[in-house]
Write a structure and sequence with these properties.
InterPro entries: DPD_II, FAD/NAD-bd_sf, FAD/NAD-binding_dom, GltD-like, Helical_ferredxn
Number of strands: 16
CATH architecture of the largest domain: 3-Layer(bba) Sandwich
Number of domains: 3
CATH superfamily of the largest domain: FAD/NAD(P)-binding domain
CATH topology of the largest domain: FAD/NAD(P)-binding domain
EC number: 1.4.1.13, 1.4.1.14
Shape: globular
Radius of gyration: 23 Å
Oligomer: single chain
Organism: Rhizomicrobium palustre
Number of helices: 18
GO molecular function: 4 iron, 4 sulfur cluster binding; glutamate synthase (NADH) activity; glutamate synthase (NADPH) activity; metal ion binding
Distance between the termini: 65 Å
Structural class: alpha/beta
Largest sheet: 5 strands, parallel
Pfam families: Fer4_20 (PF14691), Pyr_redox_2 (PF07992)
Strand content: 15-25%
Length: 477
């Protein structure tokens, strides 16, 4: 039936219910309940169906949001799923972890007019979780077989999206990854309370069942060089992400129990899988006073993970104020509700202790003049230092690229001054013939949704490259 839309004038915005903070902070289950069918349809009907859909324009995948909202409002969920799946390889994942407040929802027309945004992310999650429950997500089944083999280095969102798109076209695809499970940051970087791991594993299984080969615990440079991978395939896509943690230059930074964020989060996620963790006690926050340095989404993942591990106290140290945090304010709010102590305008200047860290020496800051990005620069307030007790410090300062030319034993591989791989924008090819790259290793640390976009674009570029190569006349021997 045709459902009347534009109900935002009489119907307020509503999110699925959140579990109480005292309950959710004790486990790693997702914190949001699922929409009921009636509530999802009701909230979808708030969409204004505007002529210029800014939600779609500000989605890196250009998801056809207004149309699948209308289909949801009309109860046509299978069609809504098919439309959502057409532009996104992982819609139920993006519905959970995308910063909608900065992308689609943050640019919703009715939000700008003061009526409160449509709950796009929660509806996207509902549509596609329902699709899995109802069996609408079909096995990956190429309709033809093409000559051509592609090797993909990295089983994160960019690599998996590229693998799926190329497999659908009929190519033979092999994915190489250093970890023992595919998924990259989806598996080992993002905590279960934001993304439960069975959601990721069922996507990986669909790819495996569709004929994509996975070579796990495989490290390019250790088990094979980039040249070896190239010799085995007609094209290669590099999607390793960026994993080198940024450091803080301060006395005592080498003390035991000062750890990088990703090492801490990976250990926690591996524990959730039932794995045994080497040096697990160091990476467990139970009973400890924990300090997390940083203000991005990774820092929020760390503080909320530490709470769930049973930390005695959890403090987030950030050099600017709440309004200038780079992370999602939704995640900050969740952390505050769960009991994290945020100490704004603070900068660690040293770490105290003998063998292991016992405290953080902190300088108080104030915001001065804007820098080149327009954000006010933090300035130290002289004579206002203090010490925070801490026996576990987690550095969540961001990530840089690893030195891939060195690691891959391919010194000619071109990189930028930041260490990211250089590609030709129109083709996504590096300076090495047949080697493509995308995701964070080209962009720098970014969002999962951008990685998916790059993976899909790379698949198109690789297909075009192989088609053109096949069309070229072969030189006579």
């Amino acid at each position: 039936m045709v459902e009347k839309m534009l109900k935002f004038v009489s119907l307020g915005r509503a999110m699925p219910g959140k579990r109480p903070p005292e309950d959710r902070a004790r486990d790693f289950h997702e914190i949001y309940a699922e929409f009921a069918a009636e509530k999802a349809a009701e909230q979808a009907s708030r969409c204004s169906q505007c002529g210029v859909p800014f939600c779609q324009q500000h989605c890196p995948l250009s998801n056809n949001i207004p149309d699948w909202l209308k289909l949801t409002a009309e109860g046509r969920l299978q069609e809504a799923h098919e439309l959502s799946q057409a532009t996104n390889n992982f819609p139920e994942i993006c519905g959970r972890i995308c910063p909608q407040d900065r992308l689609c929802e943050g640019n919703c027309v009715i939000e700008q007019s003061g009526h409160g945004t449509v709950t796009i992310g929660a509806i996207e999650k509902y549509i596609n979780d329902t699709a899995w429950e109802q069996g609408w997500v079909k096995p990956l089944a190429p309709t033809r077989t093409r000559a051509g083999s592609i090797g993909i280095i990295g089983a994160g969102p960019a690599g998996l999206a590229c693998a799926e798109e190329l497999r659908k076209k009929g190519y033979s695809v092999t994915v190489y990854d250093r970890h023992d499970r595919a998924g990259g940051l989806l598996t080992y970087g993002i905590p279960g309370f934001k993304l439960e791991k069975d959601v990721v594993m069922r996507r990986v299984k669909r790819l495996e069942d569709g004929g994509i080969a996975f070579k796990l615990n495989f490290e390019v440079g250790r088990d094979a060089t980039l040249a070896d991978i190239r010799a085995s395939h007609d094209a290669v896509f590099v999607a390793t992400g960026v994993y080198k943690p940024r450091e803080i230059d301060a006395p005592g930074v080498g003390l035991r129990a000062i750890v990088p964020a990703l090492e801490f989060l990976t250990a926690s996620n591996k524990t959730g899988f039932g794995d045994t963790i080497t040096d697990g006690e160091k990476l467990n926050a139970a009973g400890k006073n924990v300090a997390v340095i940083g203000g991005g989404d990774t820092a929020m993942d760390c503080v909320r993970t530490a709470l769930r591990q049973g930390a005695k106290s959890v403090t987030c140290l950030y050099r600017r104020d709440r309004e200038n945090m780079p992370g999602s304010l939704r995640e900050v709010t969740n952390a505050e509700e769960e009991g994290v102590d945020f100490q704004w305008l603070t900068l660690p200047k040293g770490f105290l202790g003998d063998a292991a860290v016992e405290g953080v020496r902190i300088s108080r800051m104030r915001l001065g003049l804007p820098d080149a990005t327009g954000r006010k620069s933090p300035e130290e307030i002289k004579g206002a230092d203090y010490t925070l007790q801490a026996d576990l410090v987690i550095k969540a300062l961001g990530f840089d690229p690893e030195p891939l030319p060195e690691l891959f034993k391919e010194p000619t591989l071109g990189v930028s001054k930041w260490g990211t791989l250089r590609v030709k924008p129109s083709t996504m090819m590096t300076n090495i013939e047949g080697v493509f790259a995308g995701g964070d290793i080209v962009r720098g640390a970014s969002l999962v949704v951008w990685a998916v976009r790059d993976g899909r674009d790379a698949a198109t570029a690789i297909h075009t490259y192989l088609e053109n190569k096949a069309a070229q006349p072969q030189a006579a021997e």
